[in-house]
Amino acid sequence: MMSLLAVFFSAQAAATPFPAPDCAVVPGWTQQGPERSYDRETLFDYMNGNSEGYFAYGFSLMRGVTCVNPAGDQLVIDVSEMGDPDRAWGFFVTNRDQRSSVERIGSGGQVLPRRATFAKGRTYAEIAASPDKDHRAALRAFVVALEARVPGEGRVPDAIVWFPPEGLEADSIRLVPESVLGLRVLKSGFMAQYAVGRAFVVPEATPEAAAATMEKLRARFAGAAPVSGLGDEAFSAEDQYLGRLLVFRKGARVAGVANVTVGADAAPLAKALAGRLP
């Protein structure tokens, strides 16, 4: 007989690009109401207007179900397809409980008393439980089953290893899907917090595109001064909001340190960051 895990996705999965989960994967749970499906045109209504965060990470489709058991417990399961694996991971990091630890469920996950989330491949999954009590046993059972069926690799972005571990604040690496440092010219990239300041890396398509971005940044900061011996080109600058900056390009990546702490030297961190970039 087909196992419960094998039927975790509905029997109609073959006809849809991104099937909804099945409540029957965990014994004692049944589906309440119809399956849900939302795209970029309809997510706004389901999220009560709070859909822009999803869109920033490349959201394309959400499928979901509501599951109930005889005790009156309810689980609302929603599974979303994001722009790519990095953005799925980035969306999880943005929405995780900052006070709780992250588990290696897929590329990252959490199971809390009333909420569970994880990312894997291009998928971001979230489960909300009610009523107000500890639902971790049921949440973990569903998370384990769902993670096993979600396609894609359960690995963190390659960019994680770009940031030097020395002085890195725990769990501070995140993906900024647009306007890194609040600058539109830095379209999308990764950031991490250090005692000396905020380190960032913005990948571009080619070295030429990265060089063009550097030129725009130099024009953006009045008084930008060239810095030698750092990547392919570099400059330092002062800004009203970003404080002291040290920005460099290495190949197709623009990187650096912003909001440098008063009295601190950002050069060692910038050089270590440059040394780890491919």
Describe the model.
The protein is an alpha+beta fold and 278 residues long. The protein has two domains: 5-149; 158-276, Protein Transport Mog1p, Chain A (3-Layer(aba) Sandwich), CATH 3.40.1000. It has helices at 43-46, 52-56, 85-95, 136-149, 207-220, 267-276; strands spanning 30-31, 36-39, 61-68, 74-81, 108-111, 115-120, 123-130, 174-176, 189-194, 197-203, 225-226, 233-239, 243-250, 253-258. The strands form two sheets. Strands 1, 2, 3, 4, 5, 6 and 7 form a seven-stranded antiparallel β-sheet that branches. A seven-stranded antiparallel β-sheet has the order 8-9-10-14-13-12-11. Residues 1-16 have low confidence and may be disordered.
List the helices and strands and how they pair.
Elements: E1 30-31, E2 36-39, H1 43-46, H2 52-56, E3 61-68, E4 74-81, H3 85-95, E5 108-111, E6 115-120, E7 123-130, H4 136-149, E8 174-176, E9 189-194, E10 197-203, H5 207-220, E11 225-226, E12 233-239, E13 243-250, E14 253-258, H6 267-276
Antiparallel strand pairs: 1-3, 2-3, 3-4, 4-7, 5-6, 6-7, 8-9, 9-10, 10-14, 11-12, 12-13, 13-14
